[in-house]
Amino acid sequence: MEHVLTKVALITGVTGQDGAYLAELLLSKGYTVHGIKRRSSSFNTERIEHLYRDIHEADVRFKMHYGDLTDATNLIRIVQEVQPDEIYNLAAQSHVQVSFETPEYTANSDGLGTLRLLEAIRILGLEKKTRFYQASTSELYGKVQETPQKETTPFYPRSPYAAAKLYAYWITVNYREAYGMHASNGILFNHEGPTRGETFVTRKITRAVAAIETGQQSKLYLGNLDAKRDWGHARDYVEGMWRILQQDQADDYVLATGETHEVREFVQLAFEHVGRSIVWEGEGVNEKGIDSRTGTVLVEVDPRYFRPTEVDLLLGDPTKAREKLGWHHRTTFPDLVREMVESDLKRIRETGRA
Ligand code: NDP
Ligand code: GDR
């Protein structure tokens, strides 16, 4: 009888939105999955709790290690212990606005953190065994050079986060070329879902809609309503990450939907799911979103959420991923918004909290 060895994956950032979806996907494919989590004074494992099994049970395929991307010796030890076939580097200080407040830490974790992992593979002589996925981002495109944005579009980062991710992108390419490593970048456009971090704009909106609908909040304060994003569902995008590492040759791919929408449109659709229709009045910082039936102001602009440098328009061209990986997004924009609003409404009704 043929003995099929299961593949071993190591996911950094396993407690984040994408890490949790990816761990679930890889476990469903029979992988043994190791994740790196940070020590925290309160629980930070809510997104992966459903994947946990008691470590004393037989055949436990999901294992956690304490670690941090700023700690090289710890990363080397974990990679040595795990001997992964695939590393997915998803850990990052991932909030663009926060990166303006913590630029050095962001560079350390998002930029140098990637180098530390690549070096761990090299130091341990795993260049031919371990495939590497780097969570690159459409934020690399920053100031618009061309649309739609594709693999050959020049980068122009507009935040400390994007500048750190630019280093991570190129060091991944460099290790592929210098040492023949199977190291790839997924240049992913925004992807969301019900477990999206609460301070990203989509989740901030859907939580507010649920809180307003249940009488716990009266108004939503937002920043730039004109920004346009290519929003997909995280569940679809982790499938693309996996496909990237299954290719014979390492390469870099854009994953996107090929559609773009203003923040304003997301707000509008989200409120429509609870039967409210928004009319917009005023301009710039004076713009308001008003409930057309009651006349109540539901949305106001607060300049504190403006960024020192903004990314105005993201629209991706996923042709290469479709042709080479057979990947395309499945969840439409209206379905994404609906799923997020419904999930937040359910949570608030069950727990009393948004
Ligand atoms: P999240 O912010 O939800 O998750 C980030 C993860 O990284 C969390 O597990 C977090 O741990 C962990 N982390 C943060 N800093 C460190 C550190 N110093 N050492 C170890 N772990 C750390 O991000 P997403 O899941 O949305 O994104 C995953 C990756 O993809 C990120 O690298 C992000 O920059 C990138 N990306 C995301 C896109 C998106 O639209 N979601 C688009 C393109 C790229 P903790 O839970 O303890 O905070
Ligand atoms: P982004 O996501 O910066 O694209 O980075 P975010 O949801 O934070 O912002 C999207 C756009 O909405 C505008 N905006 C607001 N944003 C936030 N967070 N809060 C507000 O109140 C608000 N009002 C308007 C922003 O100015 C921006 O234009 C995400 C992250 O997941 C990155 O890690 C990832 O690399 C990129 O997506 C692709």
TrEMBL record:
Reaction(s) this enzyme catalyzes, per UniProt: GDP-alpha-D-mannose = GDP-4-dehydro-alpha-D-rhamnose + H2O
Pfam families to which the protein is assigned, alphabetical: GDP_Man_Dehyd
Segments crossing the lipid bilayer: none
InterPro entries per the UniProt record, alphabetical: GDP_Man_deHydtase, NAD(P)-bd_dom, NAD(P)-bd_dom_sf
Gene encoding the protein: gmd
Keywords: Lyase, NADP
Annotated function: Catalyzes the conversion of GDP-D-mannose to GDP-4-dehydro-6-deoxy-D-mannose.
Keyword NADP: yes
Biological source species: Azospirillum himalayense
Cofactor: NADP(+)
Family to which this protein belongs: Belongs to the NAD(P)-dependent epimerase/dehydratase family. GDP-mannose 4,6-dehydratase subfamily.
EC number: 4.2.1.47
Gene3D superfamilies assigned: NAD(P)-binding Rossmann-like Domain, UDP-galactose 4-epimerase, domain 1
GO molecular function, one term: GDP-mannose 4,6-dehydratase activity
This protein's record includes keyword Lyase: yes
UniProt protein name: GDP-mannose 4,6-dehydratase
Matching HAMAP family: GDP_Man_dehydratase
Record domain NAD(P)-binding: where: 10-340
CDD domains registered for this protein in UniProt: GDP_MD_SDR_e (cd05260)
